[in-house]
Amino acid sequence: MSVVARQGFKYSIIGYIGFLLGTGSIFIFMNNLEFYGTLRYIMPTAEILVPFVVFGISYSNVKFFNKVDKDGKKQNMLSLSLAAVFINFILFLCVFFLLPYFFPGFKNTKAWKIKEIILPLTLMLSFCAIFNKYISNYKRIVVSNIFDNLFPKIANLGAFLIFIYLVSQYTETSPIPERTALIFFFGMFFLMFIGYVFYTNKLEKITLDFSTDYFKKDNFYKEFAAYSFFGFLGTFGNYLAINNFMIGEFMGMEEVGIYSVLYALISLISIPQLGLFNISAPIISKTLADGDMEELDRFHKKTSLSLYFLGAVLFSCIMVGFPYLTEFMPKNGTLLREYEPVVWIWGSAVLIDLATGFNGNIISLSKYYRFNILVMILLAGLTIGLNYYFIKNTDLKLIGIALSTAISLTTYNVIKIAFNYFVFKVSPLTIEMIFVSIICTLAITVAIVLPTFNNNFINLVYKPAVVLILIYIGNYFTKVFPLENYLNVNFIKSIFKFK
To answer: Is 397 helix (H, G, I), strand (E, B) or coil?
Structure first.
């Protein structure tokens, strides 16, 4: 089995462990959605700020890795990248603290009021972004996924439990519970940063080299800086962080909490996507460099079908099981049930995103990377504009946010499909995807019309089980997805070799 399959599968396993941890934590978070919303507001806000500090340098660590590797300057690139991030952070702090003098209203935002945790977290996440992309060049993504997937969930859960415990020990007005919880929250991300350093050093001993001679030669630094700048512009399409920020600013922390719980459920669908994209980036880069568009098209279709099949199966289980899952939530579970349309709308948009595969990676790793930046900015603009419209002009609340996300994300993907087809003659779409859609739709329909028992636990287990059985039978006869490549002893053994 290829390194892509092994690493991608291991990545997904870690993702599912993180999902189970996050899903199990939902039952705890529902007891105080306001503080959970605060935690979920902090990290996305920091993620919005990270691009202004990293400034696209992390993407250049992938784009130019083969070049600096041949010249024996990998450590030089890594060292200067980290130094540049630190300098950028100092400049960013200057701008951040000057903003209130030009825009007094900035002091009224929640981001300003909790800047003591947001700003240090921004620096930690910026350093981690550099190490994450640098490690991906070694086709090793499993350990980095442990950092990126499990550590934030442990940070959320640990901070929440500390807060809940200390609230019972102090008066309601005491700041100690929240401060102590946020210190733990930040501490987990600091540990994540230390972990990245140690793991990178394990792959290849880190040797700091801040010499600028190599980058000055033939004005390589200009090419590096230009690609970084366009990579920076391309990061504005983080619609999830935008949604969390806007919900927090315009609606409230409780709504952020509800939104985050729903996202935790829907994120199960896209777990395979994250691992595959990280491990495929170096392969895509090499294929483009060789000009082998036929191989790129084959690889694109194969991975897109895999992502869509896995996503469709998981989404089908979520749709038939969600109503019964909410019955086990604390008193706030009724709020989730009211927003069930969010799961349908947002989940469908994520499925479309999965079906398009790594369209964005192809564009961003080619000479046309500037186009990807334009559509990313379009995605950000559409998301912000539609969010503002639905928040201010309708009573849809989080359903409006879901509609905004679906519209902007689908538009974004359609544009990329068209561009890649006309420029590279590659497409992620296959006839097998239609069969997958038909099979999953039939499975969902059958599961819904089947009898519902009085015991919600039985419903929660048996209806998704029916979906899985029907999809397996349908796939057995249509052969749309090669399950036999994954359900065998050799592959299962290979996933436990964490290299």
So the answer is: coil
